[in-house]
Every structure is written in C-alpha cells, then in structure tokens.
C-alpha cells in the first residue's frame, strides 16, 4: 500500500512539509540519510529564525522540527536515496532501506558544500580539509586555520572557529565580504580573525595532513605560501539532485525548476528548500517552502 506523501530530505523544508502533511491527515514518511536538520542542523547558532530571540543551535532547532512532525504522525526513516521512478501514478523511491512508494513526493534533499577544486583538496579531505566548523573545529585547538569564502556561512564558521583556533584567516577573492553587516562587524572586532583580501587558494599542501596553502593575489598574480594547520571551505552550495537527472526539469546548475506552488515538471512531485531554483536560501525560506509544497501536495492528492 503506497504512502500518501513521501518526503526526500529531513532538513527544515522536509520536516515542515512532514508536519503539514501529517497534520493534514496524510500518511507521511520522511527519508533522511543522516541526522535531521540538513545544513541547518550543522550550524552552531541561528539568530534570525523567528521565535528564538536569544538564538538557538541548529541541532536544537532541527530536533524541535522533527519532534513536532512526529507528534502528528509523520514517520522518519534513515535511508539514502539511490534512484527514483516517477513515471506512474504511484511514485517509487529506491533507497538503501528498500523501495518506498507514495502517491505524491516532495523533494527536499537540500544542497552540499561546493568543493574548491584545487590540488590537494581531495587528498587532505578529513586530514585538515573540512566543510563543517561545528563538526571539526575542536580538532584545531590552538592551531592556525584558514576559512575560504566571504558569505554568511564563511564568516559564521570563522567566528565559531575562534573558540578553538589560535588564529583564523578569512581568505576571500574580493576586497569586501558578502556576509551580513552584523557578521562582518563581529569578525572585524574579533582579535583572532585576520583577512587575506583579493586572494585565492591554488593548492593545498602537506604531508600526512594539511601544512599550508599556496595563495595567489588575483590582482598582481603573485604566488606565495603560508603555513596553516587546517582549511575550512565555504564557497557556496551544490544541489543534491544527482538522482534526478533526466527525471524532473533542472536548471544549468542542477537546481530543480518549480512553479509558484512548488510543483516540478512531473505531476505529483514537488520540491522545497535549498534544492530548488530560488533567490534566497535561509531556514525561514525553507520552512515556507515546506509548508507551500505540503499544501500543494495535499491539494493534488484531493484531486485524484
């Protein structure tokens, strides 16, 4: 017997969709490959989500989302999606935990950190190269680390790393940050944070682990080396849509194209959160997406 609603991904968008779907009386199941929360669940502190004036950790917020969805009957399954078959009226999702069937699907599989793409990155992944400060920051106590990027995530993670590292250098290809002004001010006021402006990393170097970076000045082209014990990369996201190639319409970057009601090019399949084409990717916008997608899915099911 197929489920009414199957949700791929247990981040803020997926869990909100699960809450709305289950509360609306739909037999709802969520497939999540890891802990609930997605990228938000790895965030040290979220200060701009309404209702938490003192801020809240990403993990705490994620667990509250999951608890609320489960309270209304949504089921969370740990599974990695390996493929889909959306050709029939009953949609099939192939996963590490077996095949799931549902009459409607919401894809909320999110996105993952974009790799830098320089020599040494793959070689030293897990040995000084990281994409998650809250996961790995404690390994760099009293060490010198680099943070690559200039957006909110890069600056937030740099600030978090100052709890452990003795020195944090933000390396940015431009001469100004893109992060919110309040984050920029905090970074500039932190004595542990320095900046390498107009600079790109061309190679990550080391022996058993990261020992330094090869840096290039984007203006003069001059190349130099600087010693670092670790490097944290935050240069944007790539959508988790490899299992959707040729299944739903994607844009050139691989994000899912949706209509205003978040329907995809396949009837009965919707998308929400960071995985879809949109201007802003925040927890609050993901939550809004989840609610819209679930209500649209409920309306679709009612029309069958």
Structure description:
- This protein is of the alpha/beta class and 304 residues long.
- 23% of the residues lie in helices and 28% in strands.
- It folds into two domains: 3-112 and 237-302, FAD/NAD(P)-binding domain; 115-233, FAD/NAD(P)-binding domain (3-Layer(bba) Sandwich).
- The chain contains six helices and 17 strands.
- Strands 1, 2, 3, 4, 5, 6 and 17 form a seven-stranded mixed sheet that branches. It has a five-stranded parallel sheet with strand order 8-15-9-10-11. Strands 12-13-14 form a three-stranded antiparallel sheet, with no helix packed on it.
Compact summary:
With 304 residues, the chain is an alpha/beta fold. It has helices at 12-23, 58-71, 133-136, 152-161, 181-189, 283-303, and strands at 3-8, 28-32, 75-78, 81-85, 91-95, 98-107, 111-113, 129-130, 144-148, 167-171, 193-196, 199-206, 210-217, 223-227, 230-233, 237-239, 269-271.
Distance between the termini: 16 Å
Structural class: alpha/beta
Report the total helices. 6
CATH class of the largest domain: Alpha Beta
CATH topology of the largest domain: FAD/NAD(P)-binding domain
By CATH, the architecture of the largest domain is named 3-Layer(bba) Sandwich
- Topology pattern, helix = H, strand = E: EHEHEEEEEEHEHEHEEEEEEEH
- Extended strand count: 17
The CATH superfamily of the largest domain turns out to be FAD/NAD(P)-binding domain
Shape: elongated
* Rounded Rg: 21 Å
Low-confidence stretches: none
The count of domains is 2
Helix content: 10-25%
What portion of residues belong to β-strands?
Answer: 25-35%
- The pLDDT mean sits at 95
Q: Give the biggest sheet.
A: 7 strands, mixed
Family: Belongs to the class-II pyridine nucleotide-disulfide oxidoreductase family.
Organism: Neomoorella humiferrea
Keywords: Disulfide bond, FAD, Flavoprotein, NADP, Oxidoreductase, Redox-active center
Cofactor: FAD
